[in-house]
Amino acid sequence: MEKIRKAKLSFANMVGYGVGAIGLDLSYGMFYSFLSHYLVTTLGLKEGFLLLLTPLARIWDGINDPMMGTIVDNTRTKHGKYRPWIVIGALCNAVVLFLLFSRFGLSGTPLYIYVAVMYVLWGMTNTLADIPYWSMIPSFTSEEKERNLVSTVARTFSGLGQGIIMVLTPIILPRLSGGIDTDADGYSAAGFSRWAGICGILLVLFAVICVLVTKERNVVYGEKKKFSFKQIFKVIKGNDQLVIFMVFAMLSNAGWYLTSGTAYTYFTMVVGDGEKQSLFGMIGAVGSVVGLVVIPVLSKLGLNKRTIYTFSLCTTITGYVLMFIFGPILKITIALDICYILASIGIASMFVSQTVFLADIVDYGEYKNGERNESITFSMKGFLQKLAYTIQTIIYYGGLALVNYSAQINECKAKGVDPTVNSQTQMAIGIIAFAVPPILIVLSLIVFRSKFKLYGELSDKIHYFITEKRASEFQEELN
Questions:
Q1: Closest by alpha carbon to 161, among 189, 200, 135, 194?
Q2: Which of 24, 290, 371, 378 has its CA 20 to 30 A from that of 119?
């Protein structure tokens, strides 16, 4: 018998839930925005190794992520279905984050092996917390307005975590750094390690606050299922909108990851001042805050989810085109920063919409196939993010390899001079950061507009079906 618990969704509950996203994105931010620079520029690892490591790690994620989704779906504890895993995952991910950014004096082959192991472990431990955290959203409410609100609150705090990393890292790193490996901007491997340790502590703290304040509600407990690839393929094959979502979300996310992952390198190697990324990140954070009100405002104007998401992507594309013009081409950094507001508005509203879409996809799965599979469905969110990061790293490391980036960096280190790169490499970095992303987002928009159908009449039918089914189940329990 499924257990359905009715409870009013309070503002305190939503805020408590959202706080957990801050810690998750501190870890995300360090991994997605600064790991590439740390590995290639600070440690001097070869691009070819990283080009091989990333796809191999994704193969394991393809097994690990849905496996974790099944484990969460089968979880039954007095503390709930999701919350225990959030704390366990946060603690494990915090430890691995620190270890990933700590070299312990290793060099040569031992360093390559160590990085590979920690890289894979970060993905595994992140999955422990990420899947149960985001899987909670469909259980809060089936009402579109409330679901939009929960997703917006969570994404607001998520953006805050990312903003902390983007704004504070270039400022804090020089103050935490020291030793013979300190570069021209004052960044060192030791600085990265200390900052990752601080972020790890905060990750655990915010996770604990989240689970203490958040109450699980309306949780559906179906029959326990054993993990099997057959079941995972059945869920994916039976939910065509999940497959479409993964394609267009992966493309758009990869575009944004390219910018966040390359920005640090752009400002240190092209602009020549890594701390200027703080202003870039701060301006982007302003745009992100504005972007969070896009969905509520446009919804009140009567626009449906499809039109709002299209607006978000078009806004993002426009911002990127302007950034490329004022950045790599004209080299007007302040104009580049200002244009980032426009792109960030679109990105923020895009991420909120994607979270809502996944919750809708869970409902669609129940409407079409009679099974919800929340955690398995939301495990695809983490997996597609990692696939998006794989696309980012292939483009990033591949592009840098073509212009011999690491060779230039290592040559400078061998000579005992500050790392610099030639003009061709500087332009390549600019193209990777600001020209390739809008191309990926355009492709994403084409897939979304042509294939995704969870809006309008079909969306209304699904909502009515879920509402009536929950009411019937609740009445059965009362009887």
A1: 200
A2: 378
Cβ neighbours around 334 below 10 Å, total: 12
Pair 31, 192: CB distance under 8 Å: no
Domain presence at residue 158: yes
What residues contact residue 331 under an 8 Å CB cut-off, 6+ apart? none
Count: domains in the chain: 1
The answer as to whether 308 is a domain residue is yes
- The contacts of residue 204 (CB under 8 Å, 6+ apart) are 23, 87, 90, 91, 94
The per-residue pLDDT for range 383-428, each reduced to its tens digit, is: 787 888 889 889 998 999 999 998 898 888 888 787 889 999 999 9
Give the whole-angstrom CA distance, residue 24 versus residue 86.
Answer: 10
Q: Could you tell me the pLDDT band of residue 102, with boundaries at 50, 70 and 90?
A: very high
Distance CA 23, CA 103 (A): 23
DSSP3 helix / strand / coil % (the chain, rounded to 5): 80, 0, 20
Q: What is the CATH number of the domain that holds 331?
A: 1.20.1250.20
In this prediction the pTM is 0.78
- Cα 99 to Cα 112: distance, rounded to the nearest angstrom: 14
Strands (E), 149-307: none
Boundaries of domain holding 241: 15-212+232-478
* Residue 192 clears pLDDT 60, i.e. is over it: yes
- The whole-angstrom separation of Cα 216 and Cα 80 is 7
- pLDDT tens figures, 274-290: 889 899 989 988 898 88
Q: Are 137 and 214 in contact (CB under 8 A)?
A: no
Contact at 8 Å (CB) between 181 and 45? Answer: no
